[in-house]
Every structure is written in C-alpha cells, then in structure tokens.
Amino acid sequence: APPAGGGEAEAPGEERSGGSCCSSERLVINISGLRFETQLRTLSIFPDTLLGDPSRRVRYFDPLRNEYFFDRNRPSFDAILYYYQSGGRLRRPVHVPLDIFLEEIRFYQLGQEAIETFREDEGFIQEEEKPLPQHHFQRQVWLLFEYPESSGPARAIAIVSVLVILISIVIFCLETLPEFRQEPKGPQPGFGEAAPPGDEALLLLPPPPAPSGTPPPLRTAAGAGPFFTDPFFLIETLCIIWFSFELLVRFFACPSKPEFSRNIMNIIDIVAIIPYFITLGTELAQQQQQKQQPGSSSNNGGQQQAMSLAILRVIRLVRVFRIFKLSRHSKGLQILGKTLQASMRELGLLIFFLFIGVILFSSAVYFAETDDPDSLFTSIPDAFWWAVVSMTTVGYGDMYPMTIGGKIVGSLCAIAGVLTIALPVPVIVSNFNYFYHRETDHEEQCQYTHVTCGQQQSPFSEPKKGDSNQSLSKSEFLEAED
C-alpha cells in the first residue's frame, strides 16, 4: 500500500480512483487483528456496499498503520471477502452462527437483495409482509382484533375471545352427556297427531338414547318452545354473537378483502358459526310448518324430519372445528401449522410408503392364512385394517395371524412400519425447530436493539411515517408507535 499522509489524508489508492493503476491497487483490511489483503478493483465490483464505496469505508482507515480496521467477527469476513471475489456468491462458514453472520451482512451493507438471496440459499421461507389498513381508525381496529401483542386492550380482547372459544367447546361436549339429553316418555304427538304404535322411531326428537359422543338430537316441532329456552342453546347463542361480531369487525377493518376471504383461519371462523344458523333456521321452519299444517300426516312428516336430523347431525359436527380458532392466539399451534405446511412432501412420502406396505403385507398375510379354516382374513381388502394398525404399531388385536407363515408376515409388517414412520420424522422435526427458532428470534429482535460501532440504521427498519399512500407493515407501524 502507498504511504499514508496526515490524519486526514485520503485512503490508499483513492486519490487516483480514475487511473488505470488504481484497479490493481492493493489495500489491507484488519479484522480484529487478522489482516486481509485484496485489490481495490475487487471491492469496486459492488460500489453500493461499505467496502466498495470509498466515502463509506474511509471512516475506518487508520493512517498510522496504513490499513482499514474493523472490530468485527473474523471468521465471517472470509465469506464477506469471497462475496466480492466471486462476484456475488455469499456462503456462510459452517462454524459461524446464522444470526451473527446476518449481523455481519448488515454491517458491511451488502444490501437487501444479498440478504434475501442468502436466506433462500439457507433454506429460509420468506415471511409474507403483513400490510396494515391506510385509514387511521381502521388500522387501530385491525390491530385491536388481529394482533394481541400490539396493546393492552388488544390483549384483553384476545383473552375474552379465548374464553368464549373454550366455553363453546365445553358446551359442545357437555350437551352430549345422557344427563342433559331429553329422553322420550312414551308416544309423543307429531304435527298435531298422536303417533301410532311402532311409529315412534319416525319422530324427529327426542330419539332413543344415543351412544356416548353422539351429538344431542334436536327437539320436535312440538318442543320448539323448550329448544329456545334451553340453557345450552342460550349459551351457544351468546358465543355465536361474539364470533359473528368479531368476524364482521375484522372483515370491515381488514386491509384487503380478497386476502381476508382466502385466509384459512377466517374460513374456519365462518365454518364454525354456520351450523348454528342452519340449526336455528331448521327449528324455525319446523315451528312455522306446524302452525301452517297442523293436520299433516305424521308418517310423511316424520320421514322428512328423520332426513333433516341426519343432515343436521353432520352439520352440527362441524362445530368441533372451533378448536382451531385457538391457533389464532397460540404461537405454538401456528408453528405446528407452518411445520405441517412445510413438510407436505415428507408427509406425502410417508403416506405413499404406508400405502405400498399395506398392499404388500395385506396380500401376503391373506395368502399365508388362506388355508386355515379359522382365519380372520377373509379377503385382501379385509386385511387392510390389520396392515394399517400393525405398521403404525397400534395393534388392536381384533385381527391376528394364526399360522407360522402369517406370524412371519406380521413380524415383517411391524418392523417395516417402524422404519417407514421413522424415516421422515427427522425432516419434520428439523422444520419445527426452524420455525420455532425463527419465531423466538423475531420476538428477541422486537425486544432488544443491537447497537454496533459504525453501523448505520438499516433502511428496511425505518418507519415510513411520511408515506400516506402506501400500506404500512405491522412491524413498521409498531416501531413508529414506539
């Protein structure tokens, strides 16, 4: 390097930045005591970076030692210098943690494009930007109902929402208990007529006692009055009022109606409240039909009601999906959902391997047991169930081989099942760890600010306060509020 001048002298090679000899000029970069030497033309490939811009790097020039000094991470600079030498290839050293290397990239101002490329090479899934509404009041309402961490009132609303969801789920389970189900007490009239003996089964409700876990039946049209005064119905109505209010407020306050409609969580919210309105409409229709046609045939009416009951039981079963509403307020469930979404390929391979194993071992055990008169395997499709429970190591014991050949096939089936399930598990666990650490790192970045000597504030972290024509992101708004 050429001799340095006084304390304010220019850095080596920069006084002849337009000359031909400048391209081969060499300069020394000292990284915490470890000296690197490179050519000036190598750094000038990226003039918008810290090392490529003479006006930016001159502040780190030491005229006494005639070198640039950076008190930074030494192992990371090997990759930073190689970024200039290779023309843009950025590879993290194996022994350098990811967060430290990202800090070095930001310090040397390699740019947002280099950061995004590096994150893609590292296997990062780019997090979607979450815009906020432009209108101030609309933005405040959206933050209040969508982001519990934004303020104290938003956290209180989230707690109320969780309590309502839990109450709704508890009611859904409790109303199936035999103690809370109405039992028929002899023949009951249907649509104004006494039911003849033997036709009680055609009455819509109350039916015979259902097995445990079966949704409670609806009341008959004659019992429409008690239906609307039932405590379970009243509590369910209050829960639905809150769910509907929350959904409508979030819909009118959202920054994008199409994006809101395509969101899976909002679809679950809609599906969770639809059964209530269908059930309510059916009850009102039956009550109106009773008033208009009091003398209709109980046989035809009972058949129609029995068909309606079968459909309504399926519809009311959809209420169980309200449990997924908790994922809106649970980071753990959100991480699990992202893990499953990122592991769809591995889960598909798992199902494909299980499918092959089920076909193979069900066929083998059928032909191995076909000569035994006491065989439980009457056909290959009948053996599918045994193969599934054996490969998943459940083993109900309702079907089992009896011959030596069948037991050998069963042993191989269990071993193959263990290996098949164990193969994709490490990939799924790795995806879960990635999303978990990314979430925790994001929370730490929101709580702490890392201040480094000579480091300028990153342009993508500055709040856009003056731009009223663009939608703010959630992080930008929260930083602006702070």
TrEMBL record:
GO molecular function: delayed rectifier potassium channel activity
SUPFAM superfamilies: POZ domain, Voltage-gated potassium channels
Any single GO BP term: protein homooligomerization
Keyword Plastid attributed: no
Signal peptide region: none
InterPro entries: BTB/POZ_dom, Ion_trans_dom, K_chnl_volt-dep_Kv, K_chnl_volt-dep_Kv1, KCNA6, KCNA6_BTB_POZ, SKP1/BTB/POZ_sf, T1-type_BTB
Reaction(s) the record says it catalyses: K(+)(in) = K(+)(out)
UniProt keyword Transmembrane, yes or no: yes
Location of the protein in the cell: Cell membrane
Highest taxon of source: Eukaryota
Transmembrane segments: 156-177, 232-252, 264-286, 347-368, 408-429
Keywords noted in UniProt: Cell membrane, Ion channel, Ion transport, Lipoprotein, Membrane, Palmitate, Potassium, Potassium channel, Potassium transport, Transmembrane, Transmembrane helix, Transport, Voltage-gated channel
Annotated membrane topology: Multi-pass membrane protein
Region (Disordered): 1-20, 456-482
GO CC list: voltage-gated potassium channel complex
Annotated ranges, domain BTB: 25-125
Name this polypeptide is given: KCNA6 protein
Taxonomic lineage from the root: Eukaryota, Metazoa, Chordata, Craniata, Vertebrata
